[in-house]
Amino acid sequence: MDRRRMLTTAGTATAAALALASIAASQEKKNGSSPQATARNAMHQDCLDRCLHCETMCNETAHHCLTQAGNGMKEHVRAAEIALTCEEICSLSARLIARSCEMANDTCQLCEKVCGACAAECETMKSDKQMMACAEACRECAAACRRMA
Asked: Taking a C-beta distance cutoff of 8 angstroms, is the pair 86, 92 a contact?
């Protein structure tokens, strides 16, 4: 390829990239510049963060509960079941929020309900630090999901 053709091709590619970047910036500014859009984005991010944290806590708590149940503490069996369910719902909600899926509000309603049930179950074991930490994460996630739904 001769030098002139190479420069023309490079110039055209650069111009196209700049045009696409300009269009993307214009759309982002149009969609996200209002105070309502900024608040909505912050609310979505907060809910996403809390769902991810709750997912992690519920996974750790389910493991903790299964270990405790294996040591003869049978009251942890139900908590393990609920924590696993909560972990799965939080994971689904987080994925849908991250994709800006229109169904995210629906999963957030379910997530709020399941997180509330998980927190209530965990709070029955007040002397267990892991259970109380999970209950706190679930309550925070439920509140964030309530604001989303």
From this structure: no
